[in-house]
Amino acid sequence: MTCPKEDELLAFTDNMMEDHELERITRHLQGCMYCHQQVEVMRYEQEVLKETLMEPALNDDFADMIIAGLQPYEKKRKKIRPWKYALGTAAALILAAGVTLSVSPSFAELLGGIFKSDRVDEGLQLASDTELAEQVDIAVEDQGITLQVEELIVDASRIAFSYKITNKSGKMLDPYLDDNDKKNMITLHNESGKEIELSSWGWSNADDHGVVEFSLHDIEPFMKGFIRMDVTEITGKTGNWRIEIPVDLTAAYAKQLAVKIDKSYEVDGVEIDLDQVKYSTSTTEIFYSTAYTESAKQELLKDIEEKGRQFSKEIATDFIGYHPRIGYRIEDEQGEVKGYYNLFANEELGHPVDLNMIGGYGKWEGEHEEVGKTSMVDTFVPEQEEEHLYFVLDTIYKTKTSDFSVTFNTDKLPYTFEYNGYELTIDSVEREADYSLQKSWKPIRREVTTRVKLSGHAEQQAPELAGWALEDAKGTVYQIFNSGATLDERDAEGRFKREIELISYDLQKVPEELTLHLIAETEAVKLDKEWRVPLFK
């Protein structure tokens, strides 16, 4: 598993990514506790920044202090042209008149519509040419800003719609709607008005249009309902923009085919249950679960407990995903590959890849450290022609504890070592000062970290180095947060370039000697005997 870079996590936090990128990061966060924590920190800092700037906590004598420090100056009057007053009057008239709502039957498609473009996934592009897609064109205007819903696709697996925001001159504005503090709410309701609880939904910016998508894979089916957009702030302006978009799933459910599979397979201590497949107009969804056998789980928990005694429970469990994962293909009857998930299928890339996959969703039972069953729903682009497909289990990914350690002197760097298909160099150990936000009169907090940077090369299917700890010469152990990347660049031996950064928030000074302990690693086990299951009755 390759962790996203910080700028990707920031873009994810700001909802400024394409749908497929949002799905990729979401799927990664389900199995990477470190990145999940990073995203939570970013969201917290955004919230603190907003609250700090809007409502700073000031000392009681703050006003007196400011007044005492003021220096008199001569104010120069600005010249205001009459037409600016006219604009102000027009805005006042709009406010007095209130909100205007319009529904226009004559909608001019923009280059065939967003859902026919490559700014959305191929499944939505396919659905855009069916009766499940419609031009909506519902608009509401307030404060000189118009929110307009243009296109709607209602499928049995998901609902998607596009909208745009324009000013009085018709200029397109940023479609991002901030959902902090519930200022802007987009919800799905059944016919009786009850809000549907969704496990996942996404937003993306497509050519200055907002695209919202609701996933319906784990809800109680309903035939009719509506989407409600309750927007109170657009581009910093407060107003009232409410739109209700009728949805009818009757035709979508009529087109959907659900096939019960209920097949199980056990290999190398991992159980895979293939539950069902749902064929919809815009998606093919595969429902399955993975878990360790009871004996394999107990052995793993025993090893994790031992690591906890050696270091700490937090180091052994907090940011390491021990749940098993799989990689598989989708084939037709002739064995032609139609799609795959999480496979080392490209010799030119040093990490697992997907083909024709739209996204995925997963959740595990119990607490993270219990390593219980994980239920997954993987979504692929549907085949345009009806044919018999097969699920082919190709690879399983298992995480186990490790006993590898490397000791080095911080004043004798770089230091190179080899381990299990890796050749890595410790390039630097540096003490850095980071700055973050806090709710205080002094909103900037200084935080010292120690960062260990490594680089090198690894074989394509070398195990993922899943967790580390740092120990000084006195025997004090420090928890580490790790990130890294696998690049497509290769060395003369065909190995792929790797970059790793290990961060400690507790080690305040760089000592002469340090030891890196590898806590866990994830290995890819390609099956000698593949499991092939028909995805049809």
Task: Give the structure's gist in a few sentences.
The protein is an alpha+beta fold and 537 residues long.
Your description of this structure?
With 537 residues, the chain is an alpha+beta fold. It folds into three domains: 91-253, bacillus anthracis domain (Immunoglobulin-like), CATH 2.60.40.1630; 255-395 and 528-534, Sandwich (Immunoglobulin-like), CATH 2.60.40; 405-527, Immunoglobulin-like (Sandwich), CATH 2.60.40. 19% of the residues lie in helices and 46% in strands. The protein is built from nine helices and 27 strands. The strands form five sheets. Strands 13, 14, 15, 18, 19, 23, 24 and 27 form an eight-stranded antiparallel sheet that branches. Strand 13 (325-332) and strand 14 (337-343) form a beta hairpin. Helix 1 packs across helix 3 (33-54) and helix 2 (19-31) packs across helix 3 (33-54). The model is unreliable at 52-58 and 70-111 (pLDDT under 50).
Outline the fold blueprint.
Blueprint: H1 6-13, H2 19-31, H3 33-54, H4 62-69, H5 82-97, E1 100-103, H6 122-127, E2 133-142, E3 145-154, E4 158-166, E5 184-190, E6 201-206, E7 209-215, E8 224-234, E9 237-248, H7 250-255, E10 257-267, E11 270-279, E12 284-292, H8 294-310, H9 313-317, E13 325-332, E14 337-343, E15 353-355, E16 357-364, E17 374-380, E18 389-401, E19 405-409, E20 415-419, E21 422-437, E22 444-458, E23 464-472, E24 477-479, E25 481-490, E26 496-504, E27 513-534
